[in-house]
Amino acid sequence: MFLVDTNVFLEIFLSQEKEETCKSFLDDNIGKLHVTDFSLHSIGVILFRYDKKDVFRKFAEDLAPNVKLLSLPMGLYELVVGSSENFKLDFDDAYQYAVARHYRLKVVTMDKDFEKIPGDEVLFL
Questions:
Q1: CA-CA distances (angstroms) from residue 49 to 7, 43, 45, 52?
Q2: Which residues contact 27 (CB under 8 A, 6 or more apart)?
Q3: Mean of per-residue pLDDT scores for the chain
Q4: Which end of the chain is more exposed for a tag (fewer CB within 10 A), N or C?
């Protein structure tokens, strides 16, 4: 079970270098994918900035039946602070990691900041 980081989706939407790798991962893991509310909102901010509201609408429609949307319960925000302090992560990465820990998921990302996390809790594409 995986928590897909924002950058995996943006790689596809912005037609970047690892677009095909990201598409393949998502296609191969339907039913095992989760995304945070933070990622959904971040993707919306970026796509709206690029005037791609239609892409966001389609993304939200496609996401609903295939990916589970998660958020961190309010009482667990100390996990975000702890993750930031322990691994020197900024807020967005600490939030992703805290959600993944809480729901026992592996973070899927291309963000090198996650290299600070030991073990096999992160999968890099």
A1: 16, 10, 6, 7
A2: none
A3: 96
A4: N
| Domains of the chain, start order | 2-124 (3.40.50.1010)
E strands, the chain, where?
2-4, 33-36, 68-70, 106-109, 122-124
- Over residues 76-87, the pLDDT tens digits come to 999 999 999 999
Q: Distance (Å, rounded) from C-alpha 97 to C-alpha 50? A: 27
Of the chain, the percentage scoring pLDDT greater than 70 comes to 100
Per residue in 19-60, pLDDT (tens digit) is 999 999 999 999 999 999 999 999 999 999 999 999 999 999
The token duo for 30 is: 């339907």
- Are residues 63 and 35 in contact, defined by beta-carbon separation less than 8 angstroms? yes
